[in-house]
């Protein structure tokens, strides 16, 4: 299966021809994502599954916005697992975060 890559399709649809709206939307995404990613990593370090689940919940919506539908499904499952104290999906989740981090630096 091909590795899913972030894309701008949804953002393009949402913004239509409004370049200003698109830029503002991207700016918010670029500001929020690194903070939430850092918060997630801190919750991992503290082994705080409840807090990690809250952050995964916030991040999963960004996955959808960036066209990562498989990543969104992973986040849904991971959020549920974290609420039970299960960090097993962390490696796959970190991979999705890494792809987004790289992508946001290129747009």
Descriptive account of the structure:
By secondary structure, this protein is mostly helical. The chain has one domain: Four Helix Bundle (Hemerythrin (Met), subunit A) (Up-down Bundle). Helix content is 77%, strand content 0%. It has 5 helices and no strands. The chain has helices spanning 9-15, 19-45, 49-65, 69-82, 90-106. Helix 2 packs antiparallel against helix 3. The longest helix has 27 residues, at 19-45.
What is the CATH level 1 assignment?
Mainly Alpha
The CATH architecture term is Up-down Bundle
Task: Tell me the β content.
Answer: under 5%
Mean pLDDT: 96
Helices and strands: which structural class?
A: mainly alpha
As residue ranges, the low-confidence spans are none
Question: Can I get a quick summary?
Answer:
With 107 residues, the protein is an all-alpha fold. It contains five helices and no strands. The mean pLDDT is 96.
């Amino acid at each position: 299966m091909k590795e899913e890559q972030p894309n701008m399709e949804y953002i393009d649809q949402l913004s239509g021809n409004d370049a200003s709206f698109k830029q503002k939307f991207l700016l918010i995404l670029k500001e929020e994502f690194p903070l939430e990613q850092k918060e997630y990593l801190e919750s991992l370090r503290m082994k705080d599954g409840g807090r990690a689940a809250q952050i995964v919940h916030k991040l999963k919506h960004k996955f959808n916005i960036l066209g990562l539908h498989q990543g969104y499904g992973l986040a849904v499952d991971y959020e549920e697992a974290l609420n039970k104290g299960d960090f097993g999906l962390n490696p796959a989740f970190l991979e999705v975060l890494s792809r987004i981090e790289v992508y946001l630096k290129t747009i």
